[in-house]
Automatic annotation (TrEMBL):
Protein name, per record: Response regulator transcription factor
Keywords of this entry: DNA-binding
Entries under SMART domains matching the protein: HTH_LUXR
A GO molecular-function descriptor: DNA binding
Source superkingdom: Bacteria
């Protein structure tokens, strides 16, 4: 295990990076990191990433999981998302989290659920579309509104539901 951003006498970083090794379990490595950095956002890097390892990392309260060999642009995006309080996970794990329990039917969400109580009808439509994995552009086309309007609805939804990102919203909608 290698600790990144750790230097004696320095101001504690807001984010730390951990490159996983094969000499200990994910939980052991993260627990050791948490002894030194108990409250910092944790980004975990893996030489051989997998969905199962990603789930283990996220269940240990890490804020991001990605390939050690990711390019500079990707790592910059990871840092930006984590700095803003979001989660960074790969597309395959996102699909696994959002996949309907019955693969034969699409995700259906009724407006009567508690999460939808304070939302407008249009915000509910946008939230459902996000839960189904729609991009802003796709949602705009589907609802025949502009992307700017979609972004405004998303901002209002996040604020009303007290969620930080699309993943949290999708999990809230799907699991209601």
């Amino acid at each position: 295990m290698r600790l990144e951003n750790a230097s004696a006498g320095a101001v504690e970083p807001a984010m730390v990076w951990l490159r996983l090794s094969s000499d200990a379990t994910v939980a052991q490595q993260i627990a050791k990191m948490r002894q030194t950095f108990p409250s910092q956002a944790l980004v975990v890097l893996s030489d051989i990433p997998s969905d199962l390892e990603a789930l283990a990392v996220l269940s240990c309260s890490a804020r991001a999981y990605c390939n050690t060999h990711a390019g500079k642009e990707v790592l910059s995006k990871v840092a930006a998302v984590v700095e803003q309080g979001g989660l960074w996970i790969g597309e395959s794990i996102m699909q696994r989290l959002l996949a309907p329990t019955d693969s034969q039917r699409p995700l259906t969400v009724l407006a009567g659920h508690a999460w939808a109580t304070n939302l407008t009808e249009r915000e509910i439509e946008v939230a459902k579309a996000i839960a189904l994995g729609g991009s802003n552009k796709e949602i705009a086309a589907q609802l025949e509104i502009t992307e700017r309007t979609v972004k405004a609805h998303i901002g209002a939804i996040f604020e009303k539901l007290k969620v930080r990102d699309r993943l949290q919203l999708a999990l809230l909608v799907k699991n209601s």
